[in-house]
């Protein structure tokens, strides 16, 4: 089968597109999927580069997300059958081979039925960002209908999903982005108000639209301004963190605990399968209802995986922008 893989960690140029042996037939609760689409995530580039150290089987196929069709199932698989369309994530991590290939073997617990009318490109693009957004909003922040959310970076892959998902839950959403076009996108996705963080005073803007503060502050940046975030939180506000592995910014301890706030940090791939299943159930419902739609910046052939990783890395690590959503690849 064709696959995008590395034989040692390093730059995007280490990614090879070529032939690898087909996966072995599934055993136990494993499922063999013929891949229709995959998507690129920042964590894929961290694992490929060695920035996030993991024991990797070599040659190592990169990628977390996938969507496709079940080809075969192991004897212990209970909910899926050959011919079923599925999507999923959490591959390419913790020793599991990734998804950037024509065929993938994954455990049943990481795969979910693709709703009728939802394309493989859409399903792949929503996978990791959708589960991440749900874990942060529902499991950790316990967002309720009628509450307020601020998304610091509302036009990116995760941020745009958080905006839509918070709206689907019934919250009022505010967001910011780095250009007039991206601010307009945040509003199109459902933000009641959106601001340009390069031009606007975010603290003053949020005080105007939500005088008591916001119930949830979702942080997407690698170097958070905690003084800004804590000042903008309401009493008993929740701060959600999902980026910035090496960040060590100052933190206003007093204002934080005096207001009874809480902070929640998490990584999606450490979440229990049951929690990810809960997320997938809601994601499928919202996809079917038209309340959730991933932002896809471009669709490329899998053969261009190295180029896709370079684009993703420049946007997320080097801050050069150039992406307004997910990169999707097709075998």
Features:
alpha/beta; six-stranded parallel beta sheet; Rossmann fold; seven-stranded mixed beta sheet; Quinone Oxidoreductase, Chain A, domain 1
Summary of the model, kept short:
The protein has helices at 42-49, 120-140, 157-169, 180-189, 202-209, 226-232, 253-258, 273-289, 305-316; strands at residues 2-6, 16-19, 30-39, 60-61, 66-73, 85-88, 103-107, 111-113, 148-152, 172-177, 193-196, 214-219, 233-241, 262-265, 296-301, 326-330. With 331 residues, the chain is an alpha/beta fold. Strands 3, 5, 6, 7, 8, 15 and 16 form a seven-stranded mixed β-sheet that branches. A six-stranded parallel β-sheet has the order 11-10-9-12-13-14, sandwiched between helices. A three-stranded antiparallel β-sheet has the order 2-1-4, with no helix packed on it.
